[in-house]
Design a protein that fits this description.
Blueprint (H helix, E strand, L loop, with lengths): L21 E9 L5 E8 L3 E6 L5 E6 L3 E6 L3 E6 L2 E8 L4 E2 L4 E5 L3 E4 L5 E4 L12 E3 L5 E3 L7 E6 L6 E5 L5
Length: about 170
């Protein structure tokens, strides 16, 4: 669904394609600097797809396992696969994979990238999230606790500038 910035009613953006065995479209993610939204399909197999907000044209990008596709400004498509965060070179103009997948992080359960490529990830599976205090890990691997109370945090997302964190807290519901 799409909710116009000017307000109004939500509008259908994509509908699962029964001829491809799709039963759901989920995990949407905007692609910075474009009119594209990436999403995951489920049903008789999974796929990553992209839809143009302007034309509503849908393109199948990748067939196979994996969840939470995200475009990274480094020219990669990142996603979760078998408890790993993986990435693959991706041609955004042609909407096609141009390389082989490689592992970024072992044990990742959710992740987010800022517009400058800063990575945020959680190693706790949503069903196993325990009360904890989020930490910021710099590029040298040094962890600093964030000034948040211990709680059950899930689905972290960085703002485009990498300076703000949005999350779902099982304690508060947002």
């Amino acid at each position: 669904m799409v909710l116009p910035a000017t307000g109004g009613s939500a509008q259908v953006l994509t509908t699962p394609e029964a001829t491809r065995g799709e039963t759901s479209h989920r995990n949407p993610a905007f692609v910075q600097g474009s009119d594209l939204v990436l999403f995951l399909t489920d049903g008789n197999g999974r796929s990553f797809q992209a839809v143009s907000l302007r034309t509503k044209h849908v393109t199948v990008l990748v067939q196979g396992d994996g969840i939470s596709p995200r475009y990274v400004p480094t020219g990669h498509l990142a996603y979760l696969l078998d408890e790993r965060l993986v990435a693959v070179s991706f041609d955004l103009d042609a909407l096609r994979i141009t390389g082989s997948p490689f592992t970024i992080v072992e044990g990742a359960a959710s992740f987010s990238f800022s517009d400058d490529g800063t990575l945020l990830f959680s190693d706790a599976a949503p069903a196993n999230v325990l009360a904890s205090t989020p930490v910021w890990v710099n590029r040298d691997g040094i962890a600093s606790p964030l000034p948040l109370r211990a709680a059950e945090y899930d689905h972290p997302r960085l703002s485009p500038d990498g300076r703000r964190l949005a999350y779902y807290s099982l304690d508060s519901g947002y």
